[in-house]
Design goal:
The complex is a heterotetramer, with two copies of chain A and two copies of chain B.
Chain A lengths: L1 H16 L1 H37 L3 E5 L5 H13 L3 E7 L1 H12 L16 E6 L6 H12 L4 E5 L2 H42 L2 H10 L3 H33 L12 H24 L5
Antiparallel strand pairs in A: 1-3, 1-4, 2-3
Chain B lengths: L4 E11 L5 E11 L3 E6 L5 H8 L7 E6 L2 E2 L5 H9 L1 E5 L10 H12 L3 H14 L15 H13 L5 E5 L7 H16 L3 E6 L10 E7 L2 E2 L1
Parallel strand pairs in B: 3-8, 3-9, 6-7, 7-8
Antiparallel strand pairs in B: 1-2, 1-4, 4-5, 9-10
Helix pairs in contact in B: 3-4, 3-5, 4-5
Classes of the chains: A alpha+beta, B alpha/beta.
The structure holds adenosine-5'-triphosphate (2 copies) and magnesium ion (MG) (2 copies).
Chain lengths: 286, 221, 286, 221
């Protein structure tokens, strides 16, 4: 009991004797974690963004003008049996016309009834595992061999860019994330060392009287715990605050699950404990 | 009980940081209740003896035993326990600068987890005995040299530590202050606890219950 | 001369005695500056992005079906005289048809020649000072009173969002920028204090022998200079490296001018000097 | 020239950090070439006198003059200049822990921007005179107490500082070492430079060219 009292007293002493250092540490950790959070959110957002886009990824299979209706239903059956195709929607000339009206806003084909120039088509969607260039290319090649099909179209280039961007953001996020966590560790260890070094003589003396390492290190480890935990939470707090203020219409910002955020804060707090230990360790070697 | 051996050094060899031999086949034995006065020239290794006893330095040959336990570099727990039984004054035994006088004196009791009531009582005893009541809330950097020594005396006595190491507390004192500190040394020697007095000059008077040694050429004679 | 030697020697001593601290400081400063740079680039990019979009911002003035050609050229003159209108382009029924073909990819109006249902219009563009909602609304109101005009259309909501987003990014950037610079200052001051505190006894002694404050502070100020300068440069280096690797097609990333970047690095280096001074100041009060 | 006044304290009043009066109407004068031996009990203010002279502390009343210049809190430049003319040994005058012995000794010359050749030569002289040649590249924490004192002597002499303050360098020494240090003190006194020797005990022998004072009740008699 008395030792816990002592440890807490030391903790408060550390913080209140060095308010500038403590505040500086808090601020810099918060910003570092903010950077981390931003990249986490960016990764999540871009992932969701591309997933949404991919979900709607369609392949349009245009039907030859001279294909017979009877043959078409057979071909549709064949299409549905191709692995990876989630749905096949038939778009008749009338539906295509309606789609055009929706797109342009006016019916451009007024009085055109007998002579609709739009081709019939099937719109295919795919299971998510198949939404890669390789697999879609294979499917495209297969479909192109069908008799009834005039040509096939899907946004191949676009998909390629999406894939590349996604993996790049993930890569940068990983590198940066590691760097940031490393820095946060360094940073808070340094700050704790800064607070502790001023007291190195005292440690020497306390050790001489028989104080254990852990006993002396605990206030600093606790401090690391608090600092890291608080600043991790503050980083997320800032992001949430800003999220409420900004409105992106062209992008839905995806935050990690609250559970993950809490886990993250706890993990950084534990990191803080470790950094506290590393910050103090060398000073206790007496 | 009185024959209990508190310190036993056997054939100790020790080198300084610069590699010079300091102790060469040093032997020493201290029985509970008795004290030792060890005199030696500057650089003869008095302070190193203190460091050896508290496990701050280790012999490269020979054995160091305190309170029946062997002190070795690898035995961290033993060292911690032994240190808690030793009160140190002067030399390497300084005060904790960030603690007040009262906190400094209480610290040995904090370490063993003494109850609050006992702590308060003993602290008061010590502050009274060493006339430090007025200075209780000061920090060491605002004390005079003599006051600091007195606080060290109080800290070395507060938990009834069975062994006290006193490293030249009389250096550079005027006659009056010298006498005052000397009285405290005699008091310790009469209290039934053991003490090791380290000094460059021979002490002016006898200390009861004590044996005198000289540290010459790395051995005690 | 000899004093400069001494100062440089002290500088190297500081760094090589505390490689961990020095490295940690460098890393954390680099990341902080990276965060700063990212927001600078984001602000520049979004500004450019919206400016580009705004440059193309058009108002479409649809002409009533029954308006006479003669009257139109008069109206066009009037339009051109309205303040803020940069250009007026007449879109005839034929041009509108061509635009539709470009948009859709096929001529939907084949065999429709006598009966083009598309309205004539003027496309207006504006001087950049007039590309705000207020001013465009005023112009729209004015034009709506004209006889020949059936209705006027411009992406009002879109403009509003663009304005809001732009100012928001600028706000966040400013706040974050200030915070980051503050933190960098704190951080490097703390690191320098950390290196210096271990030597406080030495300062006391050197001062007693007659060493001046500046003389003792200089190695640390120099260190702050180097640390901040190097990490600011490293931050930009990282960004340039990544810029080379990522390709955003939907957005052109705008970096600040090289001059500005150099100025920024120099400014942070000076900031480092200041932080070095603040880091050491308290320890020299002996 | 020999009548040049090096130190002049007039009606100095000084309080300790805790507010207790230390100096009360202290007067003191030191002429170039002569030395002063000041003895006083523990806590009488000997070390504070040293702090006063180097501008670490300031009288709240009275005037402090060194080398004809008034030392006041506001006169940073004067203080710096005065300090460069003072060599300090013992007491508050410790070594710079991060410097080697050689760097410590040379530092006063670095401050005044002495030429490299002169620096090397004087350093060698000092190392030889105080038998520190073997220790030149060691850092202070690897020196014995006596060696540290010798380095301080060397540092206080290297730039021919006209005033040397020696704060109890003899405390806690055995007879032989005591004599050795004492010889150095006499040597300084004979060199034509001025010295102030601060000590708790009266010195065993005369020091040439010197006057003795006692610090009692905050005044010199
Ligand atoms: N750090 C301090 N804080 C407060 N008071 C102090 C401090 N140091 C000394 N004093 C007071 O100033 C007076 C003079 O102290 P000083 O250390 O100068 O004496 P001294 O003669 O050098 O003693 P010693 O022989 O112990 O070195 C003492 O009476 C003491 O009360
Ligand atoms: N920090 C050190 N680094 C290297 N050698 C040391 C150190 N301290 C002491 N020594 C060596 O160890 C020997 C014993 O030193 P110690 O300080 O124990 O002597 P001492 O008897 O306490 O002397 P003093 O009377 O000066 O306190 C000395 O001869 C010296 O050479
Ligand atoms: Mg000793
Ligand atoms: Mg003194």
């Amino acid at each position: 009991m008395i030792r816990i009292n002592h440890i807490l007293k030391e903790l408060f002493r550390n913080i209140f004797r060095n308010p500038g250092t403590a505040f500086g540490a808090l601020l810099s950790l918060t910003l570092l974690f903010l950077l981390f959070d931003i990249f986490w959110v960016a990764a999540g957002t871009s992932e969701q963004f591309y997933d949404d886009l991919l979900y709607d990824l369609q392949m349009e299979v245009f039907i030859a003008e001279d294909a017979e209706e009877i043959s078409l239903s057979q071909t549709k059956e064949v299409l549905l049996r191709i692995e990876g195709i989630r749905s096949v929607t038939y778009v008749s000339k009338d539906v295509a016309r309606q789609q055009l009206i929706d797109l342009v806003g006016v019916d451009l084909l007024v009085g055109y009834d007998s002579l609709n120039p739009l081709p019939r088509s099937w719109q295919l969607t795919f299971a998510s595992e198949y939404q890669t260039r390789e697999r879609l290319d294979a499917i495209e090649r297969e479909i192109n061999t069908f008799d009834d099909v005039s040509h096939v179209q899907y946004s191949r280039n676009w998909l390629e860019k999406a894939e590349r961007t996604k993996s790049m953001i993930l890569d940068i996020g990983m590198v940066l994330g590691l760097l940031i966590l490393l820095t946060a560790l360094f940073n808070s260890a340094n700050n704790i060392r800064l607070m502790a070094r001023a007291r190195a003589v005292g440690f020497y003396q306390m050790r001489l009287i028989g104080a254990g390492k852990l006993f002396l290190a605990l206030p600093f480890m606790l401090e690391g715990f608090l600092m890291s935990g608080i600043s991790a939470a503050a980083g997320w707090g800032l992001l949430y605050y800003w999220k409420g203020k900004i409105e992106f219409t062209w992008l839905e910002i995806i935050f990690p699950a609250v559970d993950d955020i809490i886990l993250f804060c706890l993990a950084t707090a534990v990191l803080g404990v470790i950094s506290g230990y590393f910050g103090i360790r060398r000073l206790l070697k007496v | 009980m009185s024959d209990e051996i508190i310190v036993e050094l056997n054939n100790v060899f020790l080198k300084s940081d610069r590699g010079a031999p300091v102790f060469q086949d040093l032997n020493f034995k201290l029985v509970a209740g008795r004290s030792a006065i060890i005199t030696g020239a500057a650089g003869s290794g008095k302070s190193m003896l203190a460091e050896l006893l508290v496990g701050r330095r280790f012999a490269y040959q020979g054995s160091v035993e305190l309170f029946g336990q062997v002190v070795r570099r690898s035995k961290k727990r033993t060292i911690r326990k032994v240190r808690r039984k030793i009160g140190g004054i002067g030399g390497i035994f300084d005060l904790v600068p960030s603690f007040t006088v009262a906190e400094n004196i209480m610290f040995p009791m904090v370490l063993v987890g003494e109850r609050k009531k006992v702590r308060k009582e003993r602290l008061l005893n010590m502050l009274t005995e060493f006339s430090l009541l007025k200075q209780a809330t000061e920090r060491p950097d605002r004390l005079t040299r003599v006051e600091r020594t007195l606080v060290q005396f109080a800290r070395a006595s507060v938990a009834n530590q069975p062994l006290i190491i006193v490293d030249e507390p009389l250096a550079g004192l005027d006659q009056k202050t010298y006498e005052r500190i000397f009285e405290y040394m005699i008091k310790i020697s009469c209290s039934g606890r053991s003490a090791i007095f380290l000094s460059a000059e021979t002490l002016p008077r006898e200390i009861p219950n004590s044996d005198s040694y000289q540290l010459i050429n790395g051995a005690l004679v």
